[in-house]
Structure formats: C-alpha cells, structure tokens
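The protein record filed here.
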Amino acid sequence: MNFTSPCNSVLYFDFLTWTRLTNHTQNHDTKRNNLAVEPFQPVLEILKQLEEEDTELAFQAARLVWYYRCLWESCVSKHTDGKQLEEANEKLRAGNIQLCNEGSHLKLRQDEQVARLHSIKNALDEVRGNLLGVLKVWNDRSAGDLAILPGDGRFGAVSPQCCNFGVRR
C-alpha cells in the first residue's frame, strides 16, 4: 500500500520489509537520517510479527508508528538544525569578539594619530608665529632700504641704494 503522509513525505509501506518511511531531500545528512531510523528498528520487527498474525491490526499500528515517526523526524531535524545554529552562532560570537577587539585597537590608533596631528599643528603654529616674528623684524630693519619707486606706484620695489651691496660707483 502507498499513501501520502501528513508530513509531506511519501510512505513506502510494505509490512514484510518496512524500508525507509520517507524519501528525504538530498540536503539531509546521514547523521540526521540515522538518528531518525535507528530508534524504529525494534518496532519494525514487532510490526513484521504482528502482520503475520493480524494484518488489520498491523496496518493500524503501522499508521500510528508512521505518525509518530513523522513527529520524531521533525524533532530530530529541529535538534540537528538547532545544533548547527548553535555552532554558527558560536562562530559569529567569536568573529564579533575579534571585530570588537580590532575596532577598539583601530579607535586607539585613531586617537593616537589625532593627538599626534594636534601636536604637529601646534608645533607648526608656533613655527609660523616665530617665522612671522623674524620676518617682521627683518622687514622693520630693511624698511629704510625699501621704497616706492617714483612713477611706478608699486610698493616694495627695490630702490637702487639697496642693491649696491657695498659697491661704490
């Protein structure tokens, strides 16, 4: 006899040689299948004996066992899926911890670089201030040598007196 199960699997039912009850998809691994089949081996033997004595009772018992098997397969499937999820979660937790540590390290390096940039900026501001002071002093000392050329209108043009460099004409 063949009939469809309520758990969407086809039941291949033969009282003498009750083989596998469901045809699983290829995604199920052998461990899951073994966990689902092994507990029912003694029941299969009893059903074989019962079938020889009373086929009607054996059929009713086989249906009950079949429903229980569907429930059992569902539990086994959820159990193995739960273990796989736990393993995947553990890997994700480890990855998360590693990423958090790397993030903390990168934040520390960023803070160090920002502090270094601020100290460089402060040093450059100090150098710029000192350089401006030196240029002002130099400009004040050489102000007598710089003048506006007549008719030219440009400020800061070099007068002929400042270019003689101590050479007499």
About this structure: Strands lie at 2-4, 10-12. Confidence is low (pLDDT under 50) at residues 1-28, 154-160, 162-169. Helices lie at 30-37, 41-53, 55-141. Residues 79 and 89 are 15 Å apart (CA to CA).
